[in-house]
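Service request form, structural biology core

Requester: graduate student, group of Dr. S.
Request type: structure prediction, single chain
Budget code: on file
Notes: please return the result as structure tokens.

Sequence provided:
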Amino acid sequence: MLLLVALAAYLALVYCLFRALQLFGSWRPAAALVWRSDYTDAQRNDDFWSFGSTFGTLRGFDWRDGQHARLIEDEIRFTTTSGHEQRALVQRRVRRGCTPSSSYIVWYDPAAPAKVTAQGPGFWLLHALLLLVLIGLLIQMWNRLGVTL
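Core staff response, request fulfilled:
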């Protein structure tokens, strides 16, 4: 079982590094303005006064939400490096009950500007670092158990 967890962590590490390199290599950052969001003020206030419970809230439970976060979808506008204004839909996580920022940095593919992500290379490098720590802990566990192949 330990070997399968280590293999999965290694594959996830490779993907995180690939994604970070892809974003650094060919994608471009841009300042985005939120045009419209699916997280309304009524839902935000309901989340704020529910004190962490999703039961009975307007937005309800969604398995993609975090413990204290909501996965929302924003319609954004940004200007590409070539000067064209672009619109896109972006998913991001925000803290439940808090007002999400109306502007943030997105990364887009210059070859297809409609392909946009709110998770930049820093997000992927942080996950890669956490996976390296996990792999190191797994190697320590492996050595303490004295498992040989």
